[in-house]
Amino acid sequence: MRGILMTLAMFSSAAVCAEPVADLTGAARQQVKAFATTLGGTLKASMQKDGPVAAIAVCNTEAPAIASQLSTDGWQVARTSLKIRNPDNAADAWETQVLEDFSARMAAGEDPAGLEASVTDDGEFRYMKAIPTAGLCLTCHGAELAPAVEAKLAQLYPQDQARGFNVGDLRGAFTLRKVLEE
Ligand code: HEC
Predict the structure, then answer these.
(1) Is residue 126 in some structural domain?
(2) Residue 2 counted as domain residue
(3) Which residues form the Tll0287-like domain (predicted)?
């Protein structure tokens, strides 16, 4: 089933929020769509025009730039993973738990397009949506990388763990947060 909203009961709070959770989830989905479309389009265009090594620079600078452009109205938009390339994208406890749950559900055959999670905890709404690995991603996240790609990644990300993925693996997730007004 698509679009299941998983709420982790142990984190849910009884706080009455000014904005209903359904509205926040809808807004979070819009943010994810904007992020994915903008970054995906920029990445694809750059790969086609200038090749993968130049496109690494796009991910390096454009991904955080697009994330911060979308981080308005109290939203914080980012990406995370269990195997990260940029240490700034490290998952915290809740994100790790959700990513492990997403991986288990994908291993059990669930469609990654429907994997999302949200929680309201300590005055903050949080939302995550799974990012599956597509063929295009393997150029920079696969097991075998071209030497020039390898060299550029080694230079920018000496602690890179985001390699060895296959098509259909969970690559990571979009992760959003918004502080709720009292
Ligand atoms: C041209 C090389 C390249 C391609 C192709 C590419 N990525 Fe990445 N990816 C990167 C780089 C570089 C970073 C680090 C970005 C940063 O510094 O925030 C990254 C980071 C990420 C992250 C953030 C978590 C982390 O590891 O730091 C996710 C999630 C991700 N990529 C998913 C994908 C997916 C899904 C695809 C295919 C649709 C893809 N990438 C294709 C180079 C690439």
Answers:
(1) yes
(2) no
(3) 33-176
Indicate the top mutation candidate among 58, 81, 85 to test ligand 1's pocket, ranked by most ligand atoms within 8 A of CB: 85
Please tell me the total count of domains within the chain: 1
Q: Is the CB of 78 under 6 A from ligand 1?
A: no
Mean pLDDT, the chain, whole residue set: 89
Pair of tokens at residue 14 = 């009884």
What separation in angstroms does the CA of 85 have from each of 79, 126, 133?
A: 11, 22, 14
59 CA from centroid of ligand 1 (Å) = 6
pLDDT band of 181, cuts 50, 70, 90:
confident
Cα distances (angstroms) measured from residue 135 to each of 81, 88, 141, 157: 18, 25, 10, 22
- Tally of CA atoms within 13 A in the half-sphere of 174 that contains its CB: 26
Asked if residue 113 belongs to a domain, the reply is yes
CA of 45 to the centre of ligand 1 (A): 15
Query: Among 29-33, 63-67, 87-91, 130-134, where is mean pLDDT lowest?
Result: 63-67
Does residue 15 lie within any of the structural domains?
no
Domain range for residue 77? 20-179
Share of the chain above pLDDT 90, in %: 76
Rounded to two decimals, the pTM is 0.89
